[in-house]
Design brief:
Elements: H1 25-39, H2 44-54, H3 56-59, H4 65-78, H5 84-95, H6 97-103, H7 109-125, H8 134-145
Helix pairs in contact: 1-2, 1-4, 4-5, 4-7
Length: about 160
Amino acid sequence: MPIFRDDPYLESKPKIWGPGLFDNDTAIRVRNCYLEYLMEGRPDHDATRLTIEERDIDVHDMDTDLLFWTALAWTQCDVHRLEDSVAKNTLELISGPDCHNIMMRNEWASARAEILDNLRQRIEAATTVSYMSDKELVAYCKRLWGDGFQNHVDPE
């Protein structure tokens, strides 16, 4: 049973409370959705496809598409499962003019620029990082979700 994907609180209007990549509801929903599909045992490609389908509204909304792709790319880098299509979409968005208009328009601009540069570097380096095992994935999710993780099974 999903522990985060169906949370009605998280389905309210997206809120942004800081410059960080996960300082908004959209990015948190994307990260949790993708990780939950992996924890259900879905193959990487299926977890990505299902996350895109489930968060379709974020993918096709000009206000949230950048948040969606950056969150998915960062999460996939974290668990060493970055897919080429996610890397490509994210790099195109963070290099495009809309990125500047959306992410760089307030007092958080310099912090966001640094974070996006870090993400760009992570994506470019991702091909040299080893694949995260299922056991490492479980440990990562336990650290991320804490007590809410109990609904998932450890693959040992």
